[in-house]
Amino acid sequence: MTKPTPPTIAIRGLAGELRTLRQGRKLSVRGVAASLGWPASKLSRMETGRQGSKLEDVASLLVIYGVTGEERQRLLAMSERSEPGWWEVLGGLPVESRTLIQLEAEASAIFDFEPLLVPGLLQTPDYTRAVLRGCCIPEADAQTRVTARLGRQAILARSEPPALHAILDESALRRPLGGAWVMGRQLRYLVDAADRPKVTLQVVPSSVGGYTGLDGAFAILDFPRSQTVVHLEHKISGLFLEEPEQVSFFRDEMDRLLTVALSPAESIDLVARLAAEHERE
Predict the structure, then answer these.
(1) Contact at 8 Å (CB) between 21 and 60?
(2) What is the average per-residue pLDDT within 226-255?
(3) Hey, what CATH class is 91-280 in?
(4) What is the C-alpha to C-alpha distance for residues 187 and 21, in angstroms, rounded to an integer?
(5) Average pLDDT over residues 101-110
(6) Topology of domain 9-80, CATH
């Protein structure tokens, strides 16, 4: 199974728009490519974001698609956009982490399952530091990663944030990372976060026993016009899956998790109850 190199936000966004324009005019990849004297593989790579789109190539496509005026200028500007995001200039981050931050910033919906930890988008700084300390991350690198995690969470404060649906195992709520005080504050933060209109939080209770998902965390990221990406993370690497059968497999995993998780209301009651237990210790 190969790990594709995920494209930048600008490339993915433009790729999706070019694909939508072609499909809306009921034109084939081969037909459009032939009219421009291109191999079909070139246009296919442009539409999937696996190849950047030169300004002159985009201009040629827009002529074929009959796009003029302000819409033409907007799409040409997208092809020229190359400024780095904050995650690209923050040193010390692995390439997989920078890619994930890019994709989260572009996503319209994120499903995140975590059997061992609180999802990164919902972690407090003290909890993140405790996780990094427990994973033996050098102190010199830890602050960079804490800063990056806080930067990631900014997407939830946007005027139009992505829909975040997080499912975690009850054991992640009980493990006192950083001590009882840190854990109590972390769980209170989860309760507050779940009040946001686009955040859904569910917990798989320990009473379930064995269930799908215990073999690893995963995230599914959906985009307005680009194809869905599944993210898998391990200690020294990250994997991004985009093939339809791969995405379908993890959507089925998500559906199975939903059948064993508590309802959102029941989940928040459990989180609040466990927060109180940590606070009493």
Answers:
(1) no
(2) 88
(3) alpha beta
(4) 45
(5) 88
(6) 434 Repressor (Amino-terminal Domain) (1.10.260)
